[in-house]
Design brief:
The chain has 282 residues and is of the alpha/beta class. It contains 5 helices and 15 strands. The strands form 3 sheets. A 7-stranded mixed sheet has the order 10-9-8-7-11-12-15, sandwiched between helices. Belongs to the PyrK family.
Length: 282
C-alpha cells in the first residue's frame, strides 16, 4: 500500500472566481506555488461548511487543471456538482472567500514518455480532470481523442472546450439530447481499432469504468481509470473508500482509493467484488 502523497500540503487558498457552467460550477482557486506539484488525476480535500459547521470531514474534489502562467499566480480549477451538503456549500462561496485545502492528494495518471494515441473517456462532470490531462498529453506530442457521455445534454461538461482541447470529440447522451444517443461505450472497440488507440484514460461512474475494462480485456490497450469511490477523509485514515484489487499472485487486497488511487489500472480492479467484502477479508 502507498502512503499519503508526499507533495501534499495544507494551506489557505482564496477563491478567484465561481461561475455556473451548465449543471456545474467552475471554481478557480489561487493556490500559488502548489500548482508545481499537482498532476492530472490528483485531487484536493477541502474543509467545508465554515467554522461553525457540523461537517467535520473534508470533501474530496478532482482537480480539473492547474496553471502557473496566469496573471493571478498559480491557480487550480475545480468542476463541482452541487449535490451533497459539502458541495452545495462550496458552490455558493463568493469570490474572495478563503478555503482550507489539502493538496495534491492521490495518485496521478501515468504520462507516456513517447507520443502515443490516447483516448479520454469521461462521464458527466467526471470528465473534468481529463481536460488538464489532455493539455499535458498534447504537449508530449500525443494524438488525443475524447468521448464524453451523460444521461442528458446539460450534464455534459463544457463540450465546446472539449472540442478545442483534443484532436476529436464525440458526445453521447442516453436521451439523445446532445450528440449521439447511447453510452460512451457504444462504439468503443470500433474507435480503438480505427484510431489505433494505445491507452484509455477514463473518469466517471464506476459502471462506466467497469464496462471499459471489460471491453478492452482482450486487447493490448491499457486502461487507466480514476475511480469514483466516496472518500470521507481523503488521506487514508477512515478506510471508507477501499476497493478490491487483484495482486500479482492472484490474491485480492482492499486498497484505499484516496491513497492507492484514485488512478488505477482498470484490469487490476476486481469490479465484480466492488461493494462486497472478499472472502479472505471476512
Amino acid at each position: 500500500m502507498n502512503t499519503i502523497n508526499k507533495s501534499a500540503v495544507q494551506q489557505i487558498a482564496t477563491i478567484h472566481s465561481n461561475k455556473r457552467v451548465g449543471a456545474y460550477h467552475q471554481i478557480l482557486i489561487n493556490v500559488g506555488e502548489m500548482v508545481k506539484s499537482c498532476r492530472p488525476g490528483n485531487f484536493v480535500a477541502i474543509s467545508v461548511g465554515g467554522d461553525s459547521s457540523r461537517m467535520i470531514l473534508r470533501r474530496a474534489f478532482a482537480i480539473s487543471r492547474v496553471s502557473d502562467s496566469s496573471q493571478y499566480g498559480g491557480t487550480m480549477e475545480l468542476i463541482v456538482a452541487p449535490h451533497g451538503s459539502g458541495s452545495k456549500w462550496l458552490c455558493v462561496q463568493p469570490e474572495g472567500s478563503e478555503l482550507d485545502i489539502v493538496a495534491p492528494l492521490g495518485t496521478s495518471f501515468g504520462i507516456p514518455t513517447e507520443p502515443i494515441n490516447a483516448l479520454l473517456v469521461g462521464g458527466g462532470y467526471g470528465s473534468a480532470p481529463l481536460f488538464g490531462l489532455a493539455d499535458v498529453l498534447k504537449n508530449r506530442g500525443c494524438k488525443v481523442d475524447m468521448l464524453l457521455g451523460a444521461s442528458i445534454g446539460t450534464k455534459i461538461y463544457a463540450p465546446m472546450e472539449g472540442k478545442r482541447s483534443v484532436n476529436s470529440l464525440k458526445i453521447y447522451t442516453e436521451d439523445g439530447s446532445m450528440g449521439e444517443k447511447g453510452r460512451v461505450t457504444e462504439s468503443l472497440l470500433e474507435i480503438i481499432s480505427n484510431r489505433s488507440i494505445d491507452v484509455i484514460y477514463s473518469c466517471g461512474p464506476m459502471g462506466m469504468l467497469r464496462a471499459i475494462t471489460e471491453l478492452v480485456a482482450n486487447t493490448e490497450v491499457i486502461h487507466q481509470c480514476a475511480v469514483e469511490e466516496s472518500m470521507a477523509c481523503g488521506i487514508g485514515i477512515c478506510m471508507t473508500c477501499v476497493l478490491p484489487v487483484r495482486n500479482e499472485d492472484g490474491s485480492t487486497s482492499m486498497l484505499r482509493s484516496c491513497i492507492d488511487g484514485p488512478v488505477m489500472d482498470g484490469s487490476h480492479v476486481q469490479w465484480d467484488l466492488v461493494g462486497r467484502i472478499p472472502e479472505a477479508h471476512q
